[in-house]
Write a structure and sequence with these properties.
Blueprint lengths: L6 H8 L4 E4 L6 H12 L9 E5 L2 H14 L2 H4 L2 E5 H12 L1 H4 L4 E3 L1 H10 L4 H12 L1 E3 L3 H11 L1 H10 L2 E4 L7 H11 L3 E6 L18 H8 L3 E4 L12 H10 L10 E6 L4 H20 L7 E5 L2 H11 L3 E3 L2 E3 L4 E3 L3 H19 L3 H25 L4 H19 L8 H11 L7 H11 L7 H6 L11 H13 L5 H15 L8 E5 H4 L4 E7 L17 H11 L2 E10 L9
Parallel strand pairs: 1-7, 1-8, 2-3, 2-6, 4-5, 6-7, 9-16, 10-14, 10-15, 13-14, 15-16
Antiparallel strand pairs: 11-12
Helix pairs in contact: 1-2, 2-3, 5-9, 7-17, 9-10, 9-11, 13-25, 14-15, 16-17, 16-20, 16-23, 17-18, 22-23
Bound molecules: adenosine-5'-triphosphate.
């Protein structure tokens, strides 16, 4: 593929000093960074590489896809694309002993979430205590621990500089204080290239502490840096008005561009009217993209919250009538919240253990893992403002009581723990096919309203093919011991590994996810959905300019290369002031 390399792009490729590239969605920041890598690779000495750090797994995936377009297989070996967390954990895993004399242990976000909800006091202090006294390090402390390490050991920091003569920091506007802390250290020993778009700053505030609006000003005041602005470029949707539309929504000032590339579909009522409208919007988007010559179009269906995503997923699984026509179910994939999915997956895996080998230990473990899921759910709702913290708390108590009954040798009382056991008992016999057995056990979680969240959140745990890491590990368990005991542990190891490596599949067909999760991704079409009673485009608690909501909407709309449909309630607030 031929890339346009203008003078300012060439100046970034040739620069030997620190550089900052700013530009809007699709302006070519990632591409430019990789063109710079390509130019530098021949100069690397054996053992050296280029570190490309990104904040999100989605972005890692996007960068790897770009790598395949721009770099040869040999060149790709010289570049290490990682999430911040993965890089930090590697440093801590191999050198963390320098901090307190002992090898560090990683605490997964789900373990941390469960501990946090049960801890009465200042969690930040407690997480530091866990690190210092027990050598257990929470995800949120990875970056600050690496900063500490670099401060204490200049040798280690210098060595990092030798290993990586260029470090690229993607989506730098989203980095938090701790991430900036260790990156600042690296600036003293290696060349850095920062990529940023301040208007794609969607993690500010309660989402992630330490993410700041003035991150780029802090960078520029601390480090002598060459700045290049690609703000007027748009290669993603160059032939359309999509970015202009997204920018009008960002500013809030009308009029919106009149374009056939962005359509709105208004619905009147929640329930069936909503579901059939969304179903039609997705089908129509696929149809339009095929008409435009995309044989296998990729479409993202985006909404603000997980609950609406779950409802859309349910809608797409059944036929609907709309505009006098029947619309068939649409196969799709969901990108789910990783921590909740992983914990839900562990609950299902432990039920698989119980079903395959029913005894006191597997029975207790199953109820324990379900309780752990509700603890994480409670923590999630409390941290991210979702509804349901107190409901999750009630369910924690319900499963706690079930565990107490088991320990005292009493029978379970009526309720979700007992219903689940009965559903598992009534389910067909396991056959040793991990994909079929997983589905069977997961279905038992739809037997009680309490457990539907687990059923839904576990959807993203991928067990599609026998060749998947997870399926083959479960298969090995079955082959070696004729049951699935150990599944929950296996699942945790596989998912933690995926999370750290930033392994995410390339989007294919229709994918549902929150707008936050779509950041860094690119699709042929986007269907952006607003709920009537949940997941509004504009949050009620925001100041009237709705700056944060507008930034988020711009990220969602600008993921599209070719076509966008906005599905909104009829009475929704106008996107711009006309
Ligand atoms: N110089 C260029 N010449 C031609 N095409 C380009 C160029 N730069 C980028 N592109 C194309 O434009 C699209 C977007 O590029 P890229 O992902 O690098 O943008 P970005 O600024 O990193 O986007 P975002 O911030 O939205 O993630 C890609 O399909 C890429 O191949």
């Amino acid at each position: 593929m031929a890339f346009e390399i203008c003078e300012k792009r060439q100046s970034v490729i040739d620069a030997r000093e620190h550089a900052l590239v700013v530009g809007g969605p699709g302006s070519g920041k990632t591409t430019l960074a990789l063109l710079k890598c390509k130019a530098l690779i021949p100069e690397l000495t054996p053992g050296q590489g280029i570190m490309f750090l990104s904040f999100s797994r989605a972005a890692v995936q996007q960068i790897l896809r770009r790598c395949r377009e721009i770099l040869s297989k040999e060149e790709m070996k010289c570049i290490d694309v990682r999430t911040y967390h993965s890089f930090c954990w590697d440093v801590l895993h191999s050198h963390g002993g320098l901090l307190g004399g002992k090898r560090l242990l990683m605490m997964s976000p789900s373990d941390e979430g469960a501990l946090r909800t049960q801890f009465d006091g200042n969690w930040t202090d407690e997480s530091h205590r866990l690190l210092e006294q027990d050598g257990r390090v929470c995800f949120d402390l990875f970056a600050s621990a690496v900063k500490d390490l670099f401060e204490r050991s200049n040798h280690l920091r210098d060595w990092m500089g030798c290993l990586f003569p260029l470090v690229i920091l993607d989506e730098f506007q989203d980095s938090d204080d701790e991430q900036w802390g260790f990156v600042r250290q690296l600036c003293d020993v290696t060349q850095t290239l920062f990529l940023a778009d301040t208007e794609q700053r969607i993690f500010e505030g309660s989402f992630r502490p330490g993410v700041r609006a003035d991150r780029l000003d802090i960078l520029k005041s601390d480090v002598a840096i060459k700045e290049v602005d690609l703000i007027d470029d748009n290669y993603r949707s160059a032939d359309s008005e999509i970015l202009a539309y997204a920018n009008a929504v960002l500013s809030g000032n009308g009029p919106l561009p009149k374009t056939s590339d962005v359509k709105s579909l208004l619905y009147s009522y929640a329930g069936e009217n909503f579901r059939s409208s969304v179903h039609f919007a997705v089908a129509a988007t696929l149809g339009e993209l095929r008409k435009r010559g995309k044989e296998q179009p990729t479409v993202a269906v985006l909404a603000r919250g997980n609950e609406l995503i779950a409802e859309i997923s349910d809608s797409l699984q059944v036929s609907h009538n709309f505009k006098g026509r029947e619309w068939k179910p649409i196969p799709h994939d969901i990108v789910w919240d990783q921590v909740l999915s992983a914990t839900a997956g562990e609950a299902i895996a432990s039920a698989l253990e119980f079903k395959s080998e029913p005894n006191q230990a597997t029975r207790r473990m199953m109820h324990f893992k379900i309780k752990a899921y509700f603890l994480v759910k409670k923590d999630f709702c409390e941290r991210y403002g979702g509804r349901g913290a107190s409901t999750a708390g009630d369910r924690v108590s319900r499963f706690e009581r079930a565990i107490a009954c088991l320990d005292e040798g009493k029978a379970l009382r009526a309720g979700s723990p007992k219903t689940l056991e009965q559903a598992l008992f009534d389910a067909a016999t396991l056959i040793g096919d991990p994909v079929a057995d997983w589905k069977l056990v997961r279905a038992a979680f739809s037997s009680h309203a309490d457990l539907r969240g687990i059923f839904q959140d576990a959807r993203m745990v991928r067990l599609y093919r026998a060749s998947d890491a997870l399926s083959s590990s479960l298969s090995n368990l079955w082959v070696s011991q004729a049951n699935y005991v150990g599944s929950a542990r296996v699942l945790k190891v596989v998912l933690d590994q995926e999370r750290l490596m930033g392994m995410d599949r390339d989007p294919e067909g229709v994918t549902l996810m929150t707008i936050h999760k779509s950041k860094g991704k690119e699709f042929d079409g986007v269907v952006l959905v607003e709920g009537l009673h949940s997941s509004p485009f504009f949050m009620a608690h925001e100041a009237p300019a709705y700056a944060a909501s507008r930034r988020l909407l711009r990220v969602g709309i600008s993921r599209a290369r070719s076509f966008v449909v906005l599905v909104r309630p009829k009475k929704a607030r106008a996107l711009v002031d006309e």
